[in-house]
Amino acid sequence: MKSMTKMAIAIEEIGWNEYETQCKISVRKPNMSYKGSCMNFGIPEYACAGYCPLCRKTHFLEQGDARQHCFGLMKTFEQKGRIDFHVSDDLADSRLSLDYLFGEARGQMFGVLECKDSAGEITVLKAFSGQYNGIWEVEGWAPPFLDVECFDSLVFDVDRQIKELGNRIAGLTEGKERLRLADQRKKLSQRLMKEIHALYHVRNFRSEVKPLSDFFPNGIPTGAGDCCAPKLLNDAAKRSLIPVSLAEFYWGRPNRSGTRQHRNFYAACAEKCRPILGFMLCGVTS
Length: 286
Prior knowledge:
Largest sheet: 3 strands, antiparallel
Low-confidence stretches: 1-14, 21-41
Number of strands: 7
Strand order of the largest sheet: 4-3-7
Shape: globular
């Protein structure tokens, strides 16, 4: 494991772009033996973990060297000041500036997944949670679960109707008409969310695919499937990569509740992520 540690420290020092270039050329299969590690004594703190209802086992990934890769990503953030650092400055999108995360929008979670391919060579994926300043897809980052074109087509008309109803409701005083319109708007919103969630398909490393609704019998929480860990694992499964380690950190202004602080590491959330992570990790070690 010493060679892996040296590689991770080097990534922190040189930053993300240089690491990606060198990785494609010189990174070879590491010794991934975990004998004698904390994996033998239960799930470590900050691990990406969940219970799989199909195989009835708990699966997890430790932070491992993904944590050091995160430090390399942080360094690049500080150097570039934007998340579209894969393109030249003259092609940069102002909406992807990191200043966005220190304003009213507040910060956001970022994650890194270290994988190996069929030849044992290391590939590192990265993701941001949800949308970034209203943008789903950014070059070099893990894509969302859903098809963005389908999402946009689905939302466009219904969203316009919901806004129109909201404007009509705002112009009315209390009464039956106002209640009727409010109920109509609520039903439209609920139907839209159901149709959006139907676009999410959860896959694992046994080539199994399940609808998102299978994992949330009491209703799907807002944002389920949009966090870093699920996006990273979904991308890895689609690319036939094998996950090795995963880490997530928060970047930007603290959230309103104060539970997320700039540069701190956090485990995948219990409400939205754990119900699907066990299934998503199934097959990784088989």
